[in-house]
Write a structure and sequence with these properties.
The protein is of the alpha+beta class and 528 residues long. 34% of the residues lie in helices and 21% in strands.
């Protein structure tokens, strides 16, 4: 009995230590959230540590995360960070029972790690970014020290009332409850201040009235949208448009204070623009399909929208920039976002006559915050990672030899024109359509070249031409459909496309790294 009682006492003591550690971690994060709300929301410890993890994650692992978790990859990362912190907090709490100073020092160490991560971020504004992690860690260390002191004061085998001169378990739990309430209040207050910091940006977007385009988009031809159930809509609603980036916290930029700077190699007349100055220029409106390089064969990371924006080439010309083919000194344009992301685009492509723009509108409204408000860059024919900089604030002209942008440093290709692809939208994989006529349909794309032919193959049979929807332009995807006489059994449906140059989509399967996936998309269905 004595041995059982001793084990139970140790178990209870360990539980109290674990609870003290968890509450200390919660307090640290809540106080850090409060300080970040007062200083800079993006400097919160989970955000900066998460950003540092993303930056140091191998490209293949990032690609796996996007492929596996989709647009929830950031939530998974944050939950993973919190889970790891919780486990460490439990360990520090148990350690703090016999060694309170060591436990508190462990919490402080994590504060130092958070501060270092904050100062290393490309969007860091200075030493103030370290304050949330440091102050939060100090609060957490003090909390752990005090709760651990109270926990070890609980006599072994003490009842709920405790004894004279000692903290009872009930007293410890009361202190723990007060700590939890105080930490929760601090966290809620931090959220409030964070929300207030973004109110100016929200108000600036709500009040923004987009000018009418000087050059409206050509009318979309009748017949671009097939009347087929299950096929992707020609125009992707803003709420459904894919989002792939590294921002754990979506930047909320006040349009009134936003500025864009153009400078660098070959820029004889550096420029700086406000949003109002850009909006005063002639705007163009275009239907453009945007594609992410992380899109697997048959993947969802592609969307088509009607964009409104300022042509980029005239802005560069006014700054004195010339393409390399005309003697220009710079062959790479590096776009920087407010969160420090850098994307590099070939200057030649930006000035070859295509509709490269600084977009301010998307499907008839100001850019959503998720998609780059107030301004993002967009270049038809190039994957997003070398062209579609969201929350852009800086354009620097340089060379490919002189500078590697974010993704190039992580083994992605410097140049990445979009590859010809076709996708089957319906029927879905492993569907069970009835025998008889089945409509097989989907989309195909080859921006800058257009789609001239789509073919379907059933099992190992001959390739059959699909019917094409009307083509809205070479920079948009194109719908297609095929009437298949389905017979009972299992069948493999495969699709391929031919672009405007006559080049047939390659069968060779490649990964998304380093310059986009290739290969034919296929789905397996069973006809009962």
């Amino acid at each position: 009995m004595q041995r059982v009682s001793s084990f139970r006492s140790k178990l209870v003591r360990a539980a109290l230590g674990a609870l003290a550690g968890l509450l200390a971690a919660f307090t640290a994060l809540a106080v850090a959230e409060l300080v970040a709300g007062l200083v800079r929301p993006a400097a919160g410890p989970v955000t900066v540590v998460g950003g540092a993890v993303i930056d140091r994650t191998p490209a293949g692992v990032k690609d796996f995360a996007i492929r596996t978790f989709g647009e929830n990859d950031k939530i998974v990362l944050q939950l993973g960070i919190l889970a790891v912190l919780a486990l460490i907090a439990v360990g520090l709490g148990i350690l703090a029972l016999p060694r309170r100073r060591a436990g508190a020092a462990g919490v402080l160490l994590f504060g130092i790690v958070g501060a270092a991560a904050a100062l290393s971020r490309p969007d860091s504004t200075g030493t103030g970014d370290a304050l949330p992690s440091i102050i939060g860690a100090v609060a957490g260390a003090l909390t752990l020290y005090v709760l651990a002191t109270k926990a070890v004061s609980v006599p072994a085998g003490a009842d709920s009332q405790g004894g004279p001169g000692a903290w009872s378990r009930r007293g410890f739990l009361a202190a723990a409850g007060v700590t939890a309430v105080a930490a929760t209040s601090a966290g809620a207050l931090g959220r409030y201040f964070t929300g207030r910091q973004g109110q100016g940006a929200v108000a600036s977007r709500e009040s923004l009235v987009l000018p009418k385009p000087a050059y409206p988009a050509p009318a979309v031809p009748a017949g671009v949208q097939l009347k087929v159930s299950g096929i992707t809509a020609f125009t992707t609603p803003n709420s459904d448009f894919y989002r792939v980036d590294t921002a754990l916290t979506v930047p909320k930029v006040d349009a009134g204070t936003w500025r864009l700077r153009i400078h660098g190699k070959g820029v004889s007349r550096p420029r700086a623009y406000t949003l109002d100055q850009l909006l005063a220029r002639p705007l163009i409106e275009r239907d453009i399909t945007l594609t992410c390089v992380s899109n697997e064969v048959g993947g969802p990371y592609i969307g088509n929208a009607r964009w409104l924006g300022v042509p980029l080439a005239p802005l560069l010309e006014e700054a004195g920039v010339r393409p390399p083919s005309k003697g220009g000194r710079a062959d790479q344009l590096v776009a920087r976002s407010v969160d420090g992301m850098t994307l590099g685009s070939p200057v030649e492509d930006l000035m070859d006559g295509r509709d490269a723009i600084l977009a301010v509108g998307m499907n008839g409204e100001p850019l959503p915050f998720d998609h780059g408000f107030p301004v993002r860059m967009l270049v038809p024919g190039l994957y997003g990672y070398v062209s579609a900089c969201k929350w852009i604030e800086d354009i620097e002209l340089t060379t490919f030899d002189a500078y590697d942008p974010y993704w190039v440093k992580r083994k992605w290709a410097r140049r990445a024109p979009i590859k010809t692809q076709a996708r089957i939208d319906t029927p879905k994989p492993f569907a069970r359509p009835a025998a008889g006529t089945v409509i097989v349909a989907g989309v195909a794309w080859a921006q800058r070249r257009g789609i001239t032919r789509v073919q379907i193959r059933v099992d190992d049979g001959p390739w059959q031409d699909a019917d094409l929807a009307a083509q809205a332009g070479v920079d948009t995807w194109r719908q297609w459909s095929y009437r298949w006489n389905a017979t009972p059994g299992g069948h493999n449906l495969t699709v391929r496309a031919t672009d405007g140059t006559g080049q047939v989509q390659t069968e060779q399967r490649t990964r998304t790294i380093p310059d986009g996936a290739s290969g034919w998309h296929s789905v397996f269905v069973t006809v009962p």
